[in-house]
Amino acid sequence: MTTDPAYRFDHVGLVVKDLRQATSALGALGYDSFTSPVDDLRQQVRIVFASRSEPSSPRLELVEPAGDGSVVRDLLVRGGSTTYHVCYRADDLERAMTHLSDHGFRPLAEPAASPAFEGRPFVFMYHLALGLVELVGSDDRHRGEARRSGQRCPHATRLLRRLAADGQLRAAIEYLLQEREYLPYAEGVISAAAALYREQGRGEDELAEAVLEYTYLYARHQVSFVKTGAYSHTDFARVYEEVYDNEALMLGTYLPGLLLTQAIWPVHYRVQRLFNDVFLAGFDAPPARMVEFGVGHGWTLLEYLRRFPRSEALAVDVSRHSLQFSASVLRANGVDASRVRFVQADVTRYEPEVTADCDAGVMGEILEHVEDPTSALRSFRRLLRPDARAFITTVIDSNAVDHIYQFRSQAEIDAMIVGHAFELERSEIVEPRRLRLGDELGSDPTKYYLAVARAK
Length: 456
Ligand SMILES: C[S@@+](CC[C@H](N)C(=O)[O-])C[C@H]1O[C@@H](n2cnc3c(N)ncnc32)[C@H](O)[C@@H]1O
Fold this sequence. Notes:
2,3-Dihydroxybiphenyl 1,2-Dioxygenase, domain 1, ten-stranded mixed sheet, seven-stranded mixed sheet, 17 strands, binds S-adenosylmethionine
């Protein structure tokens, strides 16, 4: 017999009829942290992990059938929503399987790559006296296979294949694909956009066009900045008329294009990972209310509302098209948009009815869009309670169709944030850009700035 390979408890698995109803029921039991759903197309299931801040509580895996051939459909038909397996990690999966086989367990199938565990190998084993146990190994052999597999991330695989044919995006996509967690993340963004387009009777071709057009529009303006040293605009009223109030540009290119850059531009991917892994993961208690300035494409808001299912939000944007688009992104992806109060306003002049009632604040890529960033920061800070956490991004030396205010250094932005009664938890220049902007551009001076701050 083989020796005991050390099994580390990982989670209890529940099969559920409806993920949304199940997560809301767990909310009543104090579960306050939920991962974004991951689709396992081979098993035809959709998976969310739930946990509580209390360290002794077990992590739960909620598994919803996603298709007629789903491996869990029979379980539901027989017993309704119920617990059905316990999962352990084992460093050497093959050795663990041999060890458990010696003790009467039988594998239900060959080990395969698990989308819920970044492509690590997993297997279900059955014991007559115990039922189902899942084992997740830690070896890397299946990860490459999972990464290459178009089956588990169909939207991302289709769109990335298409976009990689473009000279400007090819290097960026090849760079991103080297990252282990990238493809499942990209699938989340791209399938969210595809859900909206499907609802509107539009196809994935139009999505690909939107992100290409948005990327080329950005590149043209940045090339011009490198040549002239000046941003395209200085006047907000003109940008409002030409961009934010322009329905065809906003709904056809700007908003869907910018949404997809969250998965396709390396710098936006990095920022979104930090938003999830540092900002959202860093709250001592789940926030009850957040404010987002410049909600734009709505992806950041969607991630936030999924992570904190009992929180409400205030979303402020000067563009009626951004408000409409972001609300539709929420609805098309199963998030109740009535949890959000959408307000059309210029954040530099915004006078909220209630102040100091938010414990989280997000202001991504807004400060460079206004003539006076200090007035935007002032109204943002007024909405936050003392001790609220804020996520703020902007750019240095980076021009676009709607950029107005040119920041020149990280120190300048740090000082502006600190000057509005914030303490910096983290401030950094996010690398890399990895977009090739054409031969006219020697080296791109763009720097992307990110801060996590706490209101004093
Ligand atoms: C570049 S997008 C940012 C989207 C998203 N926050 C992100 O980080 O990707 C800029 C958004 O800010 C909005 N915006 C620009 N100036 C604004 C202002 N003065 N007041 C309110 N919203 C503004 C635009 O309508 C647009 O939706």
